[in-house]
Amino acid sequence: MKWRRLRTLMRREALATFRSPFTVSVLISVPLAALLIFGFVLSTEVKGLALGVFDADNSSASRRLVAELVAKETFIEKRYDTRGDLQLALVAGEISVGLVIPPGFDRDASGRGNTSPPQIQILYDGAEAPLAGNAEGFIRSLIARNVEVHRAPGADNSASRPISVVTRALFNPTLDGKPFMVAGTFGFVLSFLTVLLTAVSIVNEKITGTFEQLQVTPASGLEILLGKILPLGAIFTLDVVLMVLVAGFVLDVWPAGSAIFFVAVSAFYVQVSLALGVIISATSATAAEAVQKSVMFSIPLVQLSGFLFPIRNMPTLVQWIAEIFPATHYIRVTRAIYMRGDGPVALAPELGLLILFGVSLMVFALTRIEARA
Amino acid sequence: MNAREGTAERASRFWTNIGAVAYKEASVIRHDKALLATVFAQPVMMLLLFGLALSNKPADVPWLVLDRSRTGASRALLQEIEHTGYFLRPRPVAGYGEGVALLKSGRALAFVVVPSSFRRDLESGQPQIQLLLDGADPLSAARIGAYIAQVAGAFNLRPLPSTNPDAQTVTRGPIDIRQQFWFNPTLADNRFFLVGLAGMLLTNLCLAATSLGLVAEREGGTYEQMLASPTTPLQLLLGKLLPYVGLNYAVMLMATLAAAVFFGIWPRGSWITLLIITFPFVLASLSIGVLVSTLARTSAQAVFITVFFILPSFVLSGSMLPYQFMPEGIREIGAAFPLRWYQIALRAITERGAGLTDISVPFLALAVIFVVTISLARLRMNPRLD
Amino acid sequence: MSTAIIRAVGLTKRFGDFTAVDDLTIEVEAGTIFAFLGANGSGKSTTIRMLIGLLQPTGGSIEVDGIDVIHHARRVRDHIGYMGQKVSLYQGLSLRENVEFYAGLHGLEGQALTSRWSELSERFELRQAETEKAEDLPAGIRQRAGLALSTLHQPRVLFLDEPTAGVDIRNRGLFWELIQEEADSEVTVFVTTHFLEEVDYCDHVAFIDAGRLIADASPAELRQRYSEGYQVDLEAGPDDSAIIEPLAARTEQIDGGVRAWFPSLTPEVLGRLEVLSRERGVRASITQAPMTHVFRQLLMQAREAS
What is the ipTM of this complex? Predict the structure, then answer.
């Protein structure tokens, strides 16, 4: 392999990429947009959920209760005059959860009269299940301990909870979803974009005939492959650095471990993904087809790689499938570096796997390039 | 068009022209194998993914136990936690340090420490246990914490003689209670995805199909041909959209039926309502695709833009995660996507049996999005070649 | 002992059931221009691809400049230059940048490249277009650029696949001048084309139909074999034309003179025509049978034979 030839090939690739304004804008805007969307989407600062209130008691105690719920702006209060109105609002989706404070709440809360604990009723709509259940859980937690909470209708009344649980979360004491999502976004963006870009680039070369011309020059298959993926890899690595900086300065998410180590690992993963793009391009006749195939391949990749949904929760067979994607391992490594601060030693097995995948994919990509029908 | 034509004639010309363009488009579709493969393969793939593979409900959670109490009470508590079915058999550790180390290396997600005074504390009414979670996966961690807290909360050794006014679990510590927001342990969330599945599939289809349309014509040279014909740009746009409407209905019925037959999610409301609300959604989504095709200069660009529109659309619309949980600015951005309104309507109809009047807001929103988008597309379409 | 620089023996290529190239044997002498003709789909492009090592034949052997192309395709690349049907210039790069790229792959850089390119761009009239982006080049310039690129590293053999497709007549003429200049410097040129008139620029022609070779000769031989050869119109009376008529294949009276056909213009024929012109002042116009005519005959006979 001649270094001079490789350098010539790389130079051309870099030139062509930087001269295409569309490619450059995609390379910058997509990662940033992804970071911002995914970084913010799972926010812990939930605000403005509509809470419908039917206060039949209308006492200072009941008003205080509602005020407490609304205090941190998590809920926005909407008052209804009858229980029926409240229920209608729930069904219409105007409110996410309903709160019914029965008459006598004040009396029960103050402990006068009989000894039954004060009660409130939470209405929710099974249709918005995750939403409702969590609103309920939240209300439960917020309400002063002397209040008994009933779920309506027909659910059991799990009222007495004597054991208190003191919880502490390692690495992420506030269980902030942002670092988790940011780390995953690297995997998503790098896997998606790289495959797309290479596939399209190579297919376009085949269509314009430059690929054939290349095959008639003294450049070997390996030189052609590296001449393509090395410069693109360098460009994407720049992208990674950009993302690390934006995640840090805008989202305040910095890696707990070594940033340099992370960039190095990412640079390698990018090469792996680019090789995949080469392989996809070999089976596509038009650029649009290459993109479609890349997308079809990437959708399960995104869903199964642990980016949005935990792999452990999947059926065993699917878990095995997930392990085949290099992206899964990369995301695992990224999260370990970003959140646990793991280093090369701790991550050795995962890295080893990535290297194995990488080498195999590149060898296979090489055969596709040298294929002579 | 002939200046002497009356309005009636011009109106009928409008529709026949659209019809002609639509017919040609439909023939192209029939031969587009890649599109047809997408149409049939993707729904199957998504159905499998969302129905079977993906879930936020924890399974097989590895956890550690340090039981300093070693009484029947502590063992009973731990067993109850295990019996929720979300956890593997607990792995006992010899000391606190070992547990933390294992947790740190990611080998377990939760570490429960039962103090030696547990039984006594239980009898005196102040029982406590300690729970350490691996926060590197905050979504799972919060869920698991909530599960354990719930089990702990419901745990009763024997009926207590006096009414215990303590009404709920108190979690103390650095975890802000709001983070426990995420997860209600009792609800099957593949249902959540599957109800919105039709919307995700249609979004995919609409955008993939139409975004290529104009660009492919420009590349193939037939664009010039079309400009030279007596059709107006608006007729061209509408003619390109319409054949896909039929295709979309087919996919929507397929997805809804599949979710019903395989996963038991039969719509509570009427199918007619479903079909009705699908119409403005399809129009809106298709017109977004057309707008993209007026923006892109090559077909590869068109598909690129499409792809990077689709995924945010899925996430921000509330099809995969409830949109109400998203922070304010992001929530509003999601309202610009047709899929947001469609999935609101889908859930209303499927789960709550909503009728036409209930979905009037989504219907209107979708209509507005359609009109705005198609106008933008029309503006971008240059009636001349340059 | 042949001096063939390209030798293909029994070349065959099958794609599943379909035989694209069937038992092809050709030899190309060094320094000649060899035209390889055939209709679209006749196997032309498949053949040239095999000859340069881009496609693996199903059977047969290929030798180019002494190298076994089938087993050592890589070795042959520095010996050959190739210009494909779509001239492969990288968009977004200027012509000059494309030149530097391809030259670099052949190890041609620095001063050597500068002087080589300076000479080439002068000859090929590409100076003006050097800084133009590849996608902005008009067809004629693009074709010349393609040719220049293929010969940049001074290969001994050039393979040109339909190099003049889409080029107007004037530029085509220019182009062939350049090809002939190459041949004059001992470069062998293997050209495929379906413009039949271009055959007359070449030393040797092979014609392929449905994967089979049906002719392999010089243009003059083909004319002789498959047409009446040359048509000579003489403004002459019967005494004058009598000088040349015995040599003609046939004659016919036309307005103002005689029309005679000669299978070939032998020195004797030419000599007598010269006599007629110099001593008798007879005006003669000579037209050769158009190649379309020749090939129609050729094809007809070939198809009748099979």
Answer: 0.77
